[in-house]
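Hey team,

Filing this mostly as a record. A colleague (T.K.) asked me to run one chain through the structure pipeline before their review meeting, and I want the input and output archived in the tracker in case anyone asks later how it was produced. No errors, nothing strange. Just documentation.

Input sequence:
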Amino acid sequence: MEVSGLENIPSDQPVLFIGNHQSFFDIVITYSRLPNLTGFVAKKSIFKVPVLGLLMKRLYCISLDRNSLRSGMDMILTAVDRLKHGVSIFIYPEGTRSKDGEVHKFHPGSFKIATKAKVPIVPVTITGTRDILEYHFPNIKKARVTLTFGKPIETKELSKEEIKELPERVRGEVRGVRCEAESL
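Output structure:
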C-alpha cells in the first residue's frame, strides 16, 4: 500500500473526508491510516451485521438509509454534531461502490455536512482496492493500493455559488489523482 498526503490532514481540527468508493476494503484501508478519531457514514444494512454493527456504532459511524430522505437529514445533523465535538467524518458521496472503477457523480447533500459544521473537506482518492475482492469474490487477493489525501478545502467562507460547485470541484480532484495513480 502506498499512502501520500497524510501531511494534508489538519491535526488541530476535525474534517470531512470525501473519497471515491470502489470496494468493501475502502473503509478498512482508510481507517487504518487516519491519524485522528473518525467515524464513517455507511448504509443501514451494515449496522445489522452482528458484532460489526456494534463495533461501528462505538467507532462513531453513522447509519444511512439511502431510501429515506429523513434518514439523510438525520445523518447530516448527526455528522455535524460529531464534527463539532471533535470527531472527523468520512463519507463516500457516490452513494455506492463503483462497479466500473470510474468516479461517479457525488451527491451534493454529503457536502452540507462540511458547510454546516464549517470544517475543511479533505479529498481522498483510493485506487486498487477493487483488485482485492470485487473481481473474484469471495477470494481475497494481493493488490497494489494507493491512498492519497488531498489538500484541505476550507468551507467557512464559501459563497453560495462556490458551495454549489463544491461536489464537482472535489470530484474533479479525486478523479485527477485516480487517473495519475492508475497510469503508474
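Quick notes for T.K.: The mean pLDDT is 91. The beta strands are 2-4, 16-19, 38-43, 62-64, 88-91, 121-127, 146-149.
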